Amino acid sequence: MRRVSKRASQYLRDELLNRQRFIALEINGQRKIVSVNCSTPDWKLPGLNRGSELPEPLDSLVETTIGASDPVVFHYVELDGFVVDIHVLADDKTADVLLHDVSDAHATEQALQQRAHDNSLLSDQLKALNQELSDLNQELFLRRREAEKASSAKSRFIASMSHEFRSPIASIMGYADRLQKQFPESGHPAALQRASWHLLTLVENLLEQARDGDEDVQLNPGRFSLDSLVTDIESLFRVQAEAKGLEFDVTSSPGGLEIELDELRLRQILINLVSNAMRYTLKGRVEVRLQNVDETLLIEVSDTGQGIAEEDLETIFEPFTHVGEGNTTGTGLGLTITRQLVKRMKGKLGVESKPGFGSKFAVGIPCKQIKSGDHRAPCLKGSVLWVDDD
Hints:
Elements: H1 6-17, E1 22-27, E2 33-38, H2 58-64, E3 72-79, E4 82-90, E5 95-101, H3 103-182, H4 188-211, E6 222-225, H5 226-244, E7 247-253, E8 258-261, H6 263-279, E9 285-293, E10 296-303, H7 334-344, E11 348-353, E12 359-366, E13 368-371, E14 386-387
Parallel strand pairs: 7-9
Antiparallel strand pairs: 1-2, 1-5, 3-4, 4-5, 6-8, 8-13, 9-10, 10-12, 11-12, 11-14
Helix pairs in contact: 3-4, 4-5, 4-6, 5-6, 6-7
């Protein structure tokens, strides 16, 4: 049997020194195993015995290397559950074969390849998500710009409608004031002026609902007499109370007080609360109390009406809501607007009620007292459950 060259033998020895688990085979010209050399006794492959024929796929692999001048390496060949690198150095008849166990290295490489594949997938997904996020941001930008345009158009519309509605009402009120001065003994001009105030409040309610959520709305505080406001409210609802046979009482303390507040919106609050009390009270009384305590205007509007169930106490502040059977009159915006106005004026709104025993709405609004006189505001009697509107 011919031996492989010294160069081949040296190559195999160098390879063997770098292998921990290997099997070295010497093959003769009849493709039989002449010798078997295992690096460790615990690793052997079935069929690789001295004197036995070279099994497949080793025989076919060796056949392909006949005549090769350099060693041929077959990587990651599966043999009986192991993954091996096969080094073959052959001449025309004989061959030296080195089987190197690379199962662990192969598993590690596969894990690395799988990780690289997973990372590639994650990278692709990340790119897709980034693109989706970019598209969403672009869409958000466009929609926000559209919303800003719509908000601007809404503000212009409200400003225009506010002017269109207020101007004729202001003219009516001006003429009513002139008629009142010319005919002081007649009650008609005063009634006309009160009705104009009521109409203006209804208009403001609708505009206030349209402005809901607009943080740029400005209050217009001014100096006015609380007694004058009380007189106007009493005169405005006196006829309605008498028509329903209700006792109606409006008082304020201390007397002769002037405060600085947004009068128009305060009127809105009072008219909305009193209108609500009148609507739901069929018999008994409606009382309105205004008091100034420590630069806070306290308002109580109580009635002996049908009352409100506990589960409806929040519902009544929803827009276009009517509580109670058959109560569908009015716009359903009064209490909604009242809550918005109180919040805008940095105040508090509370309500306590019980079915069959009437209701009491309480409002506290910070205000600047201009003239307090010699009177001191009495302490409030009773208790009110305050509900923050935050």
